[in-house]
Amino acid sequence: AMDGAPPPTSPAGLSAYVAVSQLLGLTLLATTGAWLGRYRGGVAWHSPLQFNAHPLCMVLGMVFLQGDALLVYRVFRHEAKRSTKALHALLHGLALLIALVGIIAVFESHRAEGIPNMYSLHSWCGMVTFVLYLLQWLLGCGFFLFPGASFSLRGRYKPQHIFFGIALFILSITSCLLGITEMLLFKISDSYSHFVPEGILANTLGVLLVAFGLVVAYVLTRDEWKRPPLAEELALSMDFKTLTEGESPGGGS
């Protein structure tokens, strides 16, 4: 920015929607903790309560942190692109690690109790989502965070990266909703239809998951809220394109 120029500001409404998303996200975590603590006995690793680490880790990692990672480019609009990319990748990587802990918890819990694995729709959708999420993260780091990919290759892959980023966020929330329903039917199938407090609280968690997803998706799909490229980024992009493609005929490698 030029000396004396006013500091850059966010578009009208963006900050309010981001704040709502964070409030919903924190409420998600609090509601999950309240459900597991009040009705399921809490969370402990080497005990029959190990399973409860699974829903907590999935809501924290695959929903809250993944949603925040998607919002990075809307929130940090005027910081260096390299730093924003690194934060985006770091949050997604942290979400993957936490989700992996949740997956280990459910497999170990099932093994200890003699329960079969990977037979339900929830488990199928959840595992597919996690594997694709890991692949998306690895490809994203390879194309955008580390040097090597050509400018044209990045340009062709970027729309796919954006689409699958939003699609995997939706799949993550869908898997969580399936998991909540499955857990309620296993644990309180006899009383669920009588509007017992645990069922109401878990249903509320499901509604909060949907609300968080909708707010994040709305922020991501508002074209006027996209992060504008800084002047130095445009210059660097042209230099990068010249260096990676300008020396070979036709831009080929």
Automatic annotation (TrEMBL):
Q: Where are the annotated coiled coils located?
A: none
Q: Which cofactor does it need?
A: heme b
Cytochrome b561 domain location, by residue?
20-221
Q: Where are the transmembrane segments?
A: 12-36, 56-76, 88-107, 127-149, 161-180, 200-220
Q: Give the membrane topology.
A: Multi-pass membrane protein
Q: Which residues form the signal peptide?
A: none
The superkingdom of the source organism is: Eukaryota
Cellular component annotations (GO), alphabetically ordered: chromaffin granule membrane; lysosomal membrane
What keywords are assigned to this protein?
Answer: Cytoplasmic vesicle, Electron transport, Heme, Iron, Membrane, Metal-binding, Translocase, Transmembrane, Transmembrane helix, Transport
For this protein, the record's Pfam families field holds: Cytochrom_B561
Is Transport one of the keywords? yes
Q: In the record, what terms sit under GO molecular function?
A: metal ion binding; oxidoreductase activity
Q: Where in the cell is it found?
A: Cytoplasmic vesicle, Secretory vesicle, Chromaffin granule membrane
InterPro entries tied to this protein: CYB561/CYBRD1-like, Cyt_b561/ferric_Rdtase_TM
Instruction: Please name the PANTHER family in this protein's record.
Output: CYTOCHROME B561-RELATED, TRANSMEMBRANE ASCORBATE-DEPENDENT REDUCTASE CYB561
What's this chain's function?
Transmembrane reductase that uses ascorbate as an electron donor in the cytoplasm and transfers electrons across membranes to reduce monodehydro-L-ascorbate radical in the lumen of secretory vesicles. It is therefore involved the regeneration and homeostasis within secretory vesicles of ascorbate which in turn provides reducing equivalents needed to support the activity of intravesicular enzymes.
What is the name listed in the Swiss-Prot or TrEMBL entry for this protein?
A: Transmembrane ascorbate-dependent reductase CYB561
Q: Which organism is it from?
A: Chaetops frenatus (Rufous rock-jumper)
